[in-house]
């Protein structure tokens, strides 16, 4: 098993991509801390993977150290961190407001960065580790109705490179994934809201995006998790500072 005896923290792991990553890491032998705002759902995932559940509001920067210390006390210093927790709101750009904009960055960017700081400092004691940030294909695309989300995910790409550069001498590899259209509760909620705004069905709202995907299908959380596992394993030992697009070919650059 590729992660036998190792410790992993996965945020936003109660559902969707985070849940699939927690399951994939555990299947390879990792002891996983399932972090999520929804403690009940996190506990169910933790029980299924033999890990622990910790309630975590990733946007509560003052509370992050307490969450991190609880994980270390129960499982040990993490070898791996996956920053998967995030939010995405669907609102026309002209109606975007300061409150929504700052909340999006607080959760998607600030929380991920400061939790990474905490982990990296202790990973140095282990001789290295991996940090995986969750960007998005929206990092690279203009957004009419999700401008805050797109901007926050673009920031993740830049943050990933900076952290990778600074922590490379400590053998801490920092990379990011940029998922495309993945079947998750967040994705379904976003397209339901978009459909309601346009007065069309969910399927009609989804179809234009689906038509742009060369592989012709919506991805699954498990497909993203397989790629996340690669970045946690020694198979990616010479890769850092990269953002890999897991999007069915919708972005080809």
Structural write-up:
The protein has 253 residues and is of the alpha/beta class. The chain has a single domain (7-180, 221-246), classed as Rossmann fold (3-Layer(aba) Sandwich), CATH 3.40.50. The chain is 47% helix and 15% strand. The chain has 8 helices and 7 strands, in the order βαβαβαβαβαβαααβ. The chain has helices spanning 16-27, 39-49, 64-75, 98-126, 147-167, 185-198, 202-210, 221-232, and strands at residues 7-11, 31-36, 52-55, 80-83, 129-134, 172-179, 243-246. The chain has a 7-stranded parallel β-sheet with strand order 3-2-1-4-5-6-7, with helices on both faces. Helix 4 (98-126) links the parallel strand 4 (80-83) and strand 5. The protein is globular. The two termini are 34 Å apart. The model has no long low-confidence stretch (mean pLDDT 95).
